[in-house]
């Protein structure tokens, strides 16, 4: 009758699992990177939305002071955002549309956020 050696049995099982952690790391790394990129994108969209709101307020204040809105909107934005903004005015409404930075170039335009402000122009003297 063959003898049972628990140490030899455990050693043979461990030898069969050698490299398992490396395989799991390689398999899980793309998912971890994708989750990080998605989290970055969500933060970038939220930050761009906040910036668009502040820029719309700055543009509305410029209109109320009798100045053009677009330069005030661009001045209220950080450097990276100044080339990614569209300003439109119609009557007393001002809309600022901002495209956030994105590691996914294919969807960058689809993530555009906008904010609006309304201003009543000051009554002219006279």
Compact description:
This protein has helices at residues 6-16, 20-64, 69-75; strands spanning 85-90, 93-98, 113-118. It is α+β, with helices and mostly antiparallel strands. The protein has one domain.
Walk me through what this model shows:
The protein is an alpha+beta fold and 126 residues long. The chain has one domain (6-118). Helix content is 50%, strand content 14%. The protein has a three-stranded antiparallel beta sheet with strand order 1-2-3, covered by helices on one side. Helix 2 packs antiparallel against helix 3.
Descriptive keywords:
alpha+beta, 126 residues, rod-shaped, single chain, three-stranded antiparallel β-sheet, 50% helix
């Amino acid at each position: 009758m063959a003898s049972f050696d628990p140490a030899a049995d455990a050693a043979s099982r461990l030898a069969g699992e050698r490299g398992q952690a490396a395989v799991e790391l390689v398999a899980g790394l793309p998912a971890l990177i994708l989750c990080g990129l998605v989290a970055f994108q969500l933060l970038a969209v939220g930050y761009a939305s906040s910036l668009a709101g502040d820029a719309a307020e700055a543009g509305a204040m410029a209109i109320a002071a009798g100045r053009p809105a677009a330069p005030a909107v661009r001045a209220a934005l950080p450097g990276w955002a100044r080339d990614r903004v569209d300003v439109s005015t119609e009557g007393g409404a001002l809309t600022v549309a901002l495209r956030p930075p994105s590691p996914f170039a294919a969807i960058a335009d689809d993530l555009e956020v906008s904010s609006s402000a309304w201003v009543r122009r000051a009554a002219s003297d006279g």
